[in-house]
Amino acid sequence: MPGYRYESDGEEISIARGHTIDMKYTRKRVNWLARQFGQLTDPASLSQLLGVQLHLLQLLALQPRYNTFRVPKKNGTFRLIEDPEPHLKQVQKRLNTYLQCVYYLRRTPATYGFQISVDGDNDPRNILTNARRHVGNPWMLNADFLDFFHQVNYDWVYRLFTREVFTFEPDLAELLAKLTTYGGRLAMGAPTSPVLSNLATMPVDDALTELARSYDWTYTRFADDLTVSAQACIAPAQVQEFLNTIAPFGLAFNEAKFAVRSPAMPKTVTGLVVTAQDVQLPASFVTDTLTEIEKLGHLLEIHYRSGRPVTRWLEQYQQQVEGQLAFAEFILDDADSQLHSLRAAFVRIQQTPDLGEPVSWINAAYLEPASHTLY
């Protein structure tokens, strides 16, 4: 059977193909996959479930390899990325499929990020439905966990597998924890980190949901972004109670992103503008997307006139711009005038240019690829 090869100290080991799970999620399928994972008994059963030789799993756990690098953020700082090498990433992807199904069946009412989409789900969880929960509430508290994944350490993950979510034997729990952590905590880049962070913070969500219920608040969490909104004033004493509720879990906040917003202040939830009536894109997103569409049109025209083949870079640029347009279509109503402007601009650049017009390579934007991100 064709497979992957892993080499360590001169030994080559194969990971068989065919066990990667890429399917439409139905409720029946989710139940089955979650049950399969929950019935694991030891490392050998994990090996059989994943279709990966046990000694390779143990080697990957003992010597996890990651490509570590930094990428710039909009605020001028850098985000550390820890990208697992292909063999480990393949194992983590398979684990993620099962763990996501387990989480889907146990998710709290407050969580909206890092989740699978299941056919026929009448309670879809995504960035838009998260923001909609807060529409019409004039008071808002925004909070953001600092380096969220890195705060979920190895011991916490091990406890998930031994008593907090699962009741696996220590040898199986240790293998799973080592396969999914790096440097003693969740890695920013491992496929399993998002779902494990959700599983780890279920008690946090439960505690904050209970607090919110006592004050008639609305509480949601999308990944590391926590939002509380209310009809009545969120008083300083209540803010302190919010902080006291989280304190036992040892999770630190990003103080720069912690804020209470009064009725007169604009309100955003994971980058989306929340008003008394609906959810909107920030004006900067629409403006920036129009700018990127214009840049893309100029580049496409240059390639068309010069007879040059479209480069891989330009293809990726176009995909990024198309992604921004698709996001706008997801958020905005079909009749929204801003969406009409974006669609019209994109249609316009797809048209064949008039070859009688000269075109300049100056300011062609090759050195300024699309970089706008909402969240």
Please characterize this protein's 3D structure.
The chain is α+β, with helices and mostly antiparallel strands. The protein has 2 domains: 27-115 and 124-273, 2-Layer Sandwich (Alpha-Beta Plaits); 281-350. It contains 14 helices and 11 strands. The chain has helices at residues 27-38, 43-50, 54-62, 86-106, 127-132, 148-151, 154-164, 170-180, 193-200, 202-215, 236-246, 283-306, 312-331, 337-349; strands at residues 3-8, 11-16, 66-72, 78-84, 139-144, 218-222, 225-230, 259-261, 268-269, 272-274, 279-280. The strands form 4 sheets. A 4-stranded antiparallel sheet has the order 6-7-5-8. A 3-stranded antiparallel sheet has the order 9-10-11. α1 (27-38) crosses α4. The longest helix has 24 residues, at 283-306. The protein is globular. The two termini are 41 Å apart. Mean pLDDT is 88; it is low at 1-22 and 358-373.
Q: Could you give a quick summary of the protein structure above?
A:
This protein has 375 residues and is of the alpha+beta class.
